[in-house]
Specification:
By secondary structure, the chain is of the alpha/beta class. It has helices at residues 24-33, 80-91, 106-115, 143-148; strands at residues 15-20, 38-46, 53-59, 68-72, 75-76, 96-104, 121-126, 129-130, 136-137.
């Protein structure tokens, strides 16, 4: 090994933001790929009657306006929680945002594109539709419950 000159990417390190609690299931894997990333958390849960998100926690790295921000949540179902999380990130100064999920519904993608057309969505699969309870079909149920064995 010897000294050398090497290019360095300018700017702040990117920020990974987990949409609690299911987002934590993706966070460790992404951190394995990008160990120097800064990490933030958005706490939301879905009111089972209205299907609307309820906020309970928000803690993110400083200078979001200078960072690429990747919001992680395994499922994009109704899109309500995801859209609110993106609203909160933008209110905190984020300008360059991506949304990363494993499974999405057409309804969730449509809502995100309507409310946040500037936020690209990266997903592994687009399932058929939502049921009357806002779960993706065929889907996999509640991602957080599956990951953490809580139901």
């Amino acid at each position: 090994m010897q000294e050398m000159e090497s290019p360095v990417i300018a700017g702040k390190k990117l920020a990974l933001v987990s949409i609690l609690r299911a987002g934590n299931g993706l966070l460790d894997g992404v951190l394995d790929l990008i160990p120097s990333a800064r990490v933030g958390f958005v706490g939301l849960y879905r009111d089972e009657e209205t299907l609307k998100p309820v906020k309970y926690y928000f803690k993110v790295p400083s200078h979001l306006e200078q960072r690429l921000v990747i919001a992680v949540d395994p499922m994009l179902a109704t899109g309500n929680s995801s859209a609110v999380a993106i609203d909160m990130l933008k209110e905190a100064g984020a300008k360059n945002i991506r949304f990363l999920c494993l499974l999405a519904s057409p309804e969730g993608v449509a809502l995100m594109k309507e409310l946040h057309p500037d936020v690209p969505i990266v997903t592994a699969s687009l399932d058929e539709r939502l049921n009357e309870k806002g779960y993706i079909l065929p889907g996999l149920g509640d991602a957080g419950d599956r990951m953490f064995g809580t139901k």
